[in-house]
Design goal:
The protein is α/β, with parallel strands linked by helices. The chain is 44% helix and 10% strand. It folds into 2 domains: 19-203, P-loop containing nucleotide triphosphate hydrolases (Rossmann fold); 209-320, no CATH class. The protein contains 15 helices and 8 strands. The strands form 2 sheets. It has a 6-stranded mixed β-sheet, sandwiched between helices. α5 (124-137) runs parallel beside α6 (157-169), α9 (209-227) crosses α11 (241-248) and α9 (209-227) runs parallel beside α12. The longest helix is centred in the middle third of the chain and has 19 residues, at 209-227. It is elongated.
Length: 346
């Protein structure tokens, strides 16, 4: 795990629980069976002769994929890479490509189930039937379709038929469909009432300011513990540091987690003795240049710019000062070689 991208991905997969987890679990309990102790099972509930699914709707970069993979891995004991299509024991994770068609998507699912060879002239209807058949033979009971908005076209009849067909005719399959508000608008279209009625929606509402600060603080604390990376004094004593992260990432949970992980990995890979505001300043300048906004880590005093009320009362040294690795925490492997000073090269 010496590669920058691998380590950053590993760190971001150490998911920080939020209210979103509870919202998703509540919907999953409606579509999946549970054991005698209330634990989720990877077995869909039957509603008459069909199953129901879940839709997760939120803007890009909010953290939809991280949320569902965390819940499926933790509560259904599945393992996924998270960056490409994958099949676990009972669950398939499939990300829709930008130019995908329903037919191409169904054939990709067949390949994931060990059926890579299909007739060249196969119809969309037959491709969907084959996908349902191969999933049944592979004992797949949950299909996660990520970025489902990419398959929406001018005519959405193929999507209608696919979503309804998978829940009606696949003999024990539930679908978790993830998409942006474009997918949400499709579901809520009065013409798609039959599809909408089969999906329980999870809408990832924005966090309240105080909750968001707590999430960011907790992520910074936990990620530092994982890497055994102390926090420098300029962060530990800054009551508005979480506000800097939230403001710079434009209130996006996913971007906040990415910024924290990338910065800590940068400090870890370069052998810095701790992570300071300068590292966040440096990574923000590189990763978020496209936002064309002032760097929130430039000002010495952020209090006049913070739009998060009561930040000083709930942030800062109370949670962040002098962090040390938690007992029993599994730390990431460190790079071998001489430790560098905390001063970065230009």
């Amino acid at each position: 795990m010496d590669n920058y991208g691998d380590l950053s991905d590993w760190l971001q997969r150490r998911y920080i629980n939020t209210a979103w987890v509870g919202e998703l679990l509540a919907r999953m309990a409606l579509v999946l069976k549970t054991d005698s102790e209330g634990r989720l099972l990877p077995e869909p509930r039957a509603f008459g002769r069909e199953n129901h699914g879940i839709s997760i709707i939120a803007p890009s970069r909010v953290g939809k994929t991280s949320l569902i993979l965390h819940v499926v891995e933790k509560y259904l004991d599945e393992k996924f890479s998270g960056d490409h299509d994958d099949r676990g024991k009972r669950v398939i994770y499939y990300r829709v490509k930008g130019d995908a068609t329903v037919k191409a998507m169904c054939l990709d699912i067949c390949a994931l189930c060990g059926f890579p060879s299909t007739p060249k002239q196969i119809t969309r209807h037959d491709a969907q039937a084959l996908a349902a058949h191969t999933m049944k033979r592979a004992n797949v009971s949950i299909l996660i379709i990520d970025e489902v908005h990419n398959v929406l076209k001018r005519s959405n009849e193929p999507v209608d038929l696919m979503l309804k067909g998978l829940l009606q005719d696949s003999h024990g399959l539930t679908v978790i469909a993830i998409g942006t508000e474009r997918f949400g608008n499709y579901l809520r279209n009065p013409e798609n009432t039959e599809v909408l009625g089969r999906f329980y929606e999870v809408s990832l509402e924005p966090f309240e300011p105080r909750e968001f600060r707590t999430v960011v603080e907790t992520a910074l604390k936990r990620y530092c513990e994982r890497l055994e990376m102390p926090i420098a004094q300029d962060i530990a004593t800054d009551p508005y540091f979480a506000a800097r992260i939230i403001a710079g990432c434009q209130q996006s949970h996913g971007l906040c987690m990415r910024l924290i992980a990338s910065t800590l990995v940068h400090a870890h890979e370069n052998g810095f003795g701790s992570v300071s505001r300068a590292e966040f300043q440096h990574i923000f300048r590189i990763q978020f240049a496209h936002l064309r906004m002032p760097n929130p880590f430039d000002p010495e005093d952020f209090s006049a710019l913070a739009d998060v009320p009561l930040a000083a009362a709930t942030m800062g040294s109370r949670l962040l000062a002098h962090l040390s690795p938690a007992e029993g925490t599994t730390a990431a492997p460190t790079r071998r070689g001489r430790k560098k000073s905390n001063k970065k090269a230009d």
